[in-house]
Specification:
This protein is an all-alpha fold. It is built from 16 helices and two strands. The chain has helices spanning about 15-20, 30-40, 55-60, 65-75, 95, 100-110, 115-140, 145-155, 165-185, 185-195, 200, 205-210, 215-230, 230-255, 255-265, 275-280; strands at about 80-85, 90. Strands 1-2 form a two-stranded antiparallel sheet.
């Protein structure tokens, strides 16, 4: 499988910047930060390489130094560069310094369907399965009736969003946030924030991921049943297996056969019949 683009590149950063050309004047700081971010995430500005001086860099990009410094500050906040007084700015290893928010950014710098893109997509789906299954396990033990009502309200609202995949995706994120709040884990909610920007940053991918929205409606009721069951272990296993089956079906449906083997390797071996059947078999614990 193709390595993700973080290996040192043979070309000099100055050569790369010379080929980039000036950026447009609209939202200049954003444009400079996006341009450099794309070059770093694509591997053309390799981890460990030192960027040219502020003077050279500002001339290459056609901006003043104040704009350049603001853009570099954004990249440093993302964990993509490090700046030391007297030593200049160095490209950082995004794998070692960036957070989950880098995932959509890296995917955006790659061509859809290429091996590295598929590796990142598979990673994203695996993170989603882990987050959702652990959240539903905790929520099954910690939820209140107010949490159940919040989940039901969002599930009902999703019926009005079937015509718009991006609106449906945002509703899905709202449902996941309500589920995580029922789980009582702030850390999970912060992780979810990294995925909350996907509809804006990857609208085409999100529309593709939510290509069968009608089929998803029944899934919300099944998740609510898992939470109400009070059995965290059964809820975790059931949802993890159900999501693995759904993800494999999506990958196959969209021709991403190369990612299916890796996806299955991380999923439980034994397949379940339906999520509803597992819910009905799961013992229900009385809540006091």
């Amino acid at each position: 499988m193709k390595k993700l683009p973080n290996a040192p590149a043979p070309s000099d950063p100055s050569d790369t910047l010379a080929a980039i050309g000036p950026v447009a004047r609209s939202s200049v700081v954003d444009a400079v930060a996006d341009r450099l971010r794309g070059e770093i995430l694509a591997g053309r500005l390799a981890a460990g390489s030192r960027l040219p001086s502020e003077r050279e860099l500002s001339l290459a990009l056609g901006v003043n130094r104040l704009t350049l410094r603001a853009a570099l500050a954004r990249l440093e906040a993302m964990g993509l560069v490090t700046t030391r007084h007297g030593s200049g700015t160095e490209v950082a290893s995004w794998r070692e310094r960036a957070g989950l928010e880098a995932l959509p950014m890296v995917m955006g710098s790659l061509q859809e369907g290429e091996p590295a893109w598929l590796e990142l997509l598979t990673s994203m789906l695996e993170v989603r399965r882990i987050l959702a299954s652990e959240a539903v396990a905790l929520a099954a033990v910690r939820h209140t009736e107010e949490d159940i009502e919040a989940l039901r309200a969002i599930a009902d609202e999703q019926k009005t969003r079937l015509h718009d995949p991006l609106a449906f995706a945002r509703g899905e994120l709202a449902f996941q946030r309500a589920l995580i709040r029922a789980a009582g884990n702030v850390g999970f909610e912060l992780i979810l924030n990294s995925f909350a920007r996907f509809p804006e940053e990857q609208p085409a991918l999100v529309a593709s991921l939510y290509d069968r929205r009608d089929d998803s409606l029944a899934f919300y009721g099944a998740i609510i049943d898992l939470v109400r069951s009070g059995d965290g272990r059964a809820a975790r296993t059931t949802l993890q297996m159900a999501l693995a089956t759904i993800d494999d079906a999506w990958l196959k449906r969209h021709g991403h056969q190369a990612a299916i083997a890796a996806n299955k390797a991380a999923a439980p071996r034994k397949q379940d019949k339906t999520i509803k059947e597992r819910v009905t078999r799961a013992p229900r614990k009385s809540r006091r």
